[in-house]
Automatic annotation (TrEMBL):
Keywords: Membrane, Transmembrane, Transmembrane helix. The chain crosses the membrane at residues 12-30, 36-54, 66-85. This is DUF4190 domain-containing protein. Residues 216-275 are annotated as: Disordered. Residues 216-230 have a biased composition (Low complexity).
Amino acid sequence: MTRHAQPQRQQETSGLAAIAVLGGLLALILSFFAHSFAVFLALVVIVLAVIALVRARGGRPGKREAIVGLVMAVLALFIGSLMSAEGQEGFQQAVQTAPPVDPNALPASVTVATVQSPDNLVTTAGRRLHVTMMQGQESSDPCRTGTDTAAASKLVTGQQVSIAAPDAAHTDTPTAVPAGFQPVVMTLADGRDYAETWRNMSAESYVATCLAAAETTTEAPAPTTTTEATSEPDVDDDVDRPYVPAPRTKARSGHSGHPCLPGERDGDGDGYCGE
């Protein structure tokens, strides 16, 4: 080995030892937070520190730094492994002891996506809700059914509403709740009770739409004018009038063939006409 190569090798050893020190310090710090990465970095630092120690034999510089880096890397490896094992054990324990999620548990608020009927709604998350104390018996009037659904859609479609489990004062019979629906009490975003607000709004819509249309169609038709045949004015037969005898016509003459004229012989052989 030449004299020029020896100082260069010493510099490389010192640099490698310095890297081992910095890497060991970083691994020790990360072992408290990023356990997996700290373990990996500690293994790399251990390899570098060992190489630096091998090169520093015979009194070459860098030996002390390599030892310091090696010690910190070993500590980081131990702490990181320990923390990682405890973390995994704690996670598994938490998963095992965590209470199971209740699919029937109600969130505090939901957003309504569709209205199947005024009391049966579907949220954007797919949850199906039955709002209690809504309408009781179904209406057979198609106009009433349409106005009821339109009023419900206007109130809640696309709106975020608050829901809660019904209490004793707000319950429906089990047969009124469709299969797969959860009974709830619903409050609108402005704080109003949905069931009460809907009842008022649907009643107004029914009166304005259905009853008004029914009154219009059932009104009596306007009287039509007909042209009566013009008849002759009545003649009062009881009015006294002078008697006018009907004209008498003599029988035709057998001689002239025309009505009997004065001075001619009449046809009955009793004399002349006019006698």
